[in-house]
Amino acid sequence: MFSGLEAPIVGLTGPPQDPGAPAPAPAGTLTASLIAGVLRSSALMLFLSLAAHCSGPQAKGLCPGGTDASRADLWASANRSQLQGFWCQPASQLPRDQLSALIRRLASLQVPLQAWQLGCLANLASRCGLQDDFMLHPPSLLLFYNLSQLRADDCRAFIRRATQGDLELLDHLPDQRVALRRAALACLVGAGPLPRLRASDLQLLGVLVCDMDASSIATADPHVLENLQCCPQLTADQRTALNSLLAGGRTQLGPPGSWTVEKLQALGPLATYISPHLWAQVQEAVGLGFFHSVVAACRTGRLSRHEARRFVSSFLESKAKPVSSGHRLRTGHITAATLQDDLFLVHYDCGQLESCLDSRVLTANLDPLLQHPLPAECQRVVKAKLTQIYPGGLPEAQLRLITSLVYLYSGAEIGQWNITSRDTVVALLASDVALENQTSAVLQKFLDHNGTVSSALLLAIGGARLCWMSPQQIQTIPPQELRLAGALDVSSCPQSRKDVLYTKAQEAFGSSRTPAAYYRLMRPYLGEPCPAPAHPRPVGGAPAEELRQLAQANISMDIDTFTGLNPRVLQSLDVSTVIALLGPNVGDLQKARSHPAVRSWLRSLSSSALGQLGLDTEHAGPTGSAHATSGLPSTTPQAPHLAHTSGLPGNAAQASTSGSLWTPLGYLPLAVALPSSLLWLLHWGTSGPAPHCSPGPCTLGSVDVTASGWLGSQGSGAGKTGLLGAAGCPLGMRGRL
Fold first, then answer.
1. In this predicted model, what pLDDT tens digit does every residue of 504-556 receive, in sequence order?
2. Is the distance from CB of 608 to CB of 579 less than 8 angstroms?
3. 187 is in which domain, residue-wise?
4. How many domains would you assign to the chain?
């Protein structure tokens, strides 16, 4: 069972560990102490014993196809980190009662899941008839449910719970977001016009108010402020409506002249949107007291620097002229004690910062100075002074303090730095201000000093930084380090980077044992293919050949990944391939029909093809896309089915006669089994009939390995051969881990 331990362990780092979990190994290493530390965790020890129990035919009671009363407390004992590893395909093999227990466990532990996880989980829950138990489900999961199945009697309770979820998860499902808002308004007024929003209406709408237009906000009950506090950001029109509402004095704050520090603090981040015009009407002592609290909150990390700077800029603009009390603008040198004052930016403007701050005080107090939310003009003053002090480049010790200034430095200036520590790289790139040029320049200085891009570094700086590494830097990442880092989020990468990332990911993950394992790791990188001879430059998106192979393998692609595929490649796929590719998630096309990639593909289809998807062309055209043929029924997932290749028998429940089935995961090396986490391994690895729940099955079929071509030949060259595209690029798996 432990024969694969010496192989690189895919995805070992995974989700954040519990506080009591062993500390990670040094960057780029997989030591015996790390393995021993992992094995010491009670969760993994339980996994090992249960995986052994489930690895052979004797484990019929625990594996899919039956239930085991002795394991009924399995889901109740799962911890948060394990549940974050939720994966739809193995979860789809759970019996109905265990799927229900899993969803409730996710809710009770408030496990944060991503959109691609929640979308397919919602489809599983709907297929198994669990949607009516929505009050026991995670609020964010409700955002993905089929709203056409919502009963009128449940409308208010459903919407009230759903709006406690993270609405930003629906970014790739614009139609679902619109449908949710319409369903909420229908709960309030039926088919009539939207009236002035009352306090009770606002309580029901929750975060959906963030999608309301400015006029609805301006005329709403003053309690709308509580809703707006949940919005990640406000549009320009919404900001205007907010200031209009505050200026009218109808809110609990009263007119601006009566505001207090406590009332402003109760506004939370909304206070950072207050206009200079309103700040000019606030009592001076109140404004200064609130300024003090904002800077203190910024220093302790309770308020983001971006929000704090937004407030500071607006507040200082309102105080452009010195106030009568003399609090504004002081003279004299800036000292260490001056920089400790939270009202420093009120007393000294950027011009005085340049003339009153000497080099000695700056070098000794750089950290407390940069803890202030300096306006951009003041940041440029500080950078210019540092350049005068260190003409040959900043010392490495100072580099870790200037994260808020990195965006001001050119590649040539960064070229003067000495970066020898991974901690310095993390400090400079973990901030949200470094841009593309700064990212590649910082990494290059680290590489020039014999640094390596390890899995620990990749996890620390995040997948988004991969987007800004140069192609040459991406090529330097050892494949085993990318394997250890697991599936990073590279969705924001430009097309010019995704081709390099796709090739590098193939090196790291192309030898995965099963299509499911391959897709789990390659999913974020399916945005760019290897260039074919006829295309000197890659066209973007996973190759059509690979998508067809994934469709045959029943990987059940989530709609979040599907919308990220290259539209030009998507155009080459027929309806049957897309249905097989999405599997039980095919109904989600209705939720994303206005997404540019989906809309373009739908417009290319014939009426009969749209009919296969349950959509029509009533509103298709330049301003719309295909709609469901009857309400919103197409968000209901279709029954999972097996996509066959030649030589595969028609009965999905039967084993193929032309080759062996996928190896049960319990028989695989630990290197393959480990990343799937305890919960999912317990329910993989059976070739028997899948469990069913009324009215239909909750499971996916299995596929003949040899017939589908995922495993390489076991003869000569085993471990190297596999499906190749026209340019010799591997499609799917190559050999074994």
1. 888 888 888 888 888 888 888 886 443 333 333 334 457 899 999 999 998 88
2. no
3. 77-195
4. 1
